[in-house]
Design a protein that fits this description.
Residues 321-359 have a biased composition (Basic and acidic residues). The chain is mainly alpha-helical. It is built from twelve helices and no strands. It folds into two domains: 25-322, no CATH class; 323-375.
């Protein structure tokens, strides 16, 4: 793994959309694609992405329940709370183990039936934004590791970005929920109004799945684009990694569901905590898939640069968005080093003086002894 490049060292890197780079995926050679795929797997391990995924799982758990609380409350306000839960879990059940979903299904069903939906929406929304921004912050640190760059954005610039990304992501989740839940009554009303009720419903049932996939890809691509301190190329290159992440998520989720259903027995081992363990493991796998997609994006950019003749075999050459924080940290680190050096030299001088004093004392004692022996 290459050492992490400092933001200052990468300031002179070529522009993200340098004219020398391939302008579309079709222009990337087969050899480059093979290099990108192999390098992605290797960097996934070297960048400690499994450990980063564990950190994201922690922040994800903190953000999950407030987010679902806000979403369920919003739909409960329009009388669609239970319908929302059934639709969302119906989709997720296709990829996640059933035990993982049982952990969160019952609390949400109980809340959707309570009369406190309005208060729950406000409370859940505020908690969701704050908690989910912690996840975005952890994702930002992981992305900086992926792109081998220091965080150079100051707090007053970084934190608002994280909150904006959080709000956009939550809005996309709401869009996904609306597509799943509200679409039935709306399409029926539109179809009845134009006299083609059944035809509109059939068309929508076919069209909504690509729209859902597009919304999910967009949410992941926004995370990939906005969170690292490295300036990013055109958005279409980022969406490739998002698509890879979704495919990886489906594969690992299907494999994990097969393992849980046929080989593992978490209920026997952990008792009532079995569902919690399965849920956390699946969430860790999901975050690992997201980070693998990010690694694929980063290595695809490296492949584009190498194909353009840019020296990126050691470090990905992308300019930083900002260097002020990393410059200040480097200055403080230099001051600490200088202070430590002064302490070392001062103590070394004291030790030398003490050694010379000991030598002088020993020499004086020796001379006195010689004089006494002569007498």
């Amino acid at each position: 793994m290459a050492d992490k490049g400092t933001s200052r060292e990468l300031s002179d890197a070529p522009a993200p959309d340098d004219d020398r780079k391939p302008d579309s995926p079709r222009e990337v050679t087969k050899r480059s694609w093979m290099y990108v795929l192999r390098k992605s797997f290797r960097e996934f391990i070297d960048d400690q992405c499994p450990d980063r995924a564990a950190s994201l799982t922690y922040y994800g758990v903190l953000a999950l329940f407030p987010s679902l609380l806000a979403l369920t409350s919003l739909l409960a306000l329009v009388g669609q709370g239970q319908r929302a839960i059934d639709a969302l879990f119906g989709i997720v059940e296709q990829v996640a183990p059933g035990q993982a979903l049982d952990v969160i299904r019952e609390p949400l069903e109980d809340f959707s039936a309570s009369p406190a939906a309005g208060l729950g929406f406000v409370t859940g929304l505020l908690l969701a934004i704050w908690s989910a921004s912690g996840y975005v912050g952890a994702f930002s640190r992981a992305m900086n590791q992926v792109y081998e760059i220091d965080e150079g954005r100051p707090f007053w610039k970084l934190r608002p970005m994280q909150l904006i990304v959080t709000v956009i992501t939550l809005l996309l989740i709401v869009v996904i929920a609306v597509i799943l839940v509200i679409s039935g009554p709306v399409t029926n009303a539109i179809g009845d109004a134009i006299g083609a009720g059944e035809a509109v419903k059939i068309v929508w049932e076919i069209a909504k799945w690509p729209l859902l996939a597009l919304a999910v890809i967009l949410a992941i691509a926004i995370l990939y684009y906005a969170t690292p301190n490295a300036k990013q190329p055109k958005f279409r290159w980022i969406s490739i990694g998002a698509l890879v992440a979704i495919v990886a998520l489906v594969i690992v989720s299907a494999g994990f569901a097969l393992y849980v259903a046929n080989f593992a027995n978490y209920d026997r081992t952990y008792g009532s905590f079995g569902g919690v363990i399965v849920f956390l493991l699946w969430l860790w796998l999901a975050n690992s898939a997201l980070l693998f997609g990010a690694e694929f994006d980063a290595e695809l950019e490296r492949g584009r640069q190498l194909q353009a003749g840019i020296e990126a075999e050691e470090d990905i050459q992308l300019p930083p968005r900002d260097t002020r924080k990393s410059d200040k940290a480097a200055k403080k680190e230099h001051e600490d080093i200088e202070m430590g050096r002064r302490i070392r030299l001062e103590h070394a001088d004291d030790a030398d003086d003490a050694d010379r004093a000991d030598v002088d004392t020993a020499t004086g004692d020796g001379r006195s002894a010689q004089e006494r022996s002569r007498r």
